[in-house]
Amino acid sequence: MSAAYCRLAPGHPFHGDYHGKEYGFPARDDAVLFERLVLEINQAGLSWLTVLKKRDAFRAAFVGYDIDKIAAFTARDVKRLLADPGIIRNRLKLEAVIDKTDLADAVDALLVTIATAIMVKKPHPGTTLIRQDEVTTLTQPE
Question: What domains appear along the chain, each with residue ranges and CATH number?
Answer without folding.
Answer: 28-109 (1.10.340.30)
